[in-house]
């Protein structure tokens, strides 16, 4: 299905009772979000990112441990036009429908090559979930290894990523509606 890509300036984020929406798949479509799997390192995992008829992002696939693999992810990079995070924001808020598996949400700032990551579990089933990712719980990592810098402190964001890599072979399927900050 082809979804019209509305050119929405992500720095003109909407404020509302749920905070400030950084990215809304129903409003912005797939945009510059793309798949990045372990094949970049020789792995064999496969995934895809498609838009549903309801304009939600449908990220699904199979994680393989073959050839030292073990992850699938989607990410968006906005190096030249970072997301501006309000000084009073404390938490990322993901609106999604999970499959009962654990996922990792990551952000990267203009200050270094490392990312800040937080792993959360999903409930599965037919209910939408609101996942809170507190800034102060997001730990610095680089290629999955800890980095000795303080946890995320709310800096502007040049990349967002959603990753599954639970050190086991598994199929997965998750719907994502939006990413916001509060």
Key traits:
182 residues; mainly beta; disordered N terminus
Structural account:
The protein has 1 helix and 14 strands; from the N terminus they run ββαββββββββββββ. By secondary structure, the chain is mainly beta. The strands form 2 sheets. Strands 1, 2, 4, 5, 7, 10 and 14 form a 7-stranded antiparallel beta sheet that branches. It has a 7-stranded antiparallel beta sheet with strand order 3-6-13-8-9-11-12, with no helix packed on it. Strand 8 (102-108) and strand 9 form a beta hairpin. It is globular. Mean pLDDT is 91; it is low at 1-17.
Structure in a nutshell:
This protein is 2% helix and 46% strand.
Distance between the termini: 32 Å
Mean of residue pLDDT values: 91
Based on the structure, what is the oligomeric state of the protein chains? Answer: single chain
Assign the structural class, choosing from mainly alpha, mainly beta, alpha/beta, alpha+beta, or little secondary structure: mainly beta
Name the helicity range: under 10%
Helices and strands, with pairings:
Elements: E1 14-16, E2 19-24, H1 25-28, E3 34-37, E4 46-51, E5 57-63, E6 72-77, E7 91-97, E8 102-108, E9 115-121, E10 129-134, E11 139-142, E12 145-146, E13 159-164, E14 170-181
Antiparallel strand pairs: 1-2, 2-14, 3-6, 4-5, 5-14, 6-13, 7-10, 7-14, 8-9, 8-13, 9-11, 11-12
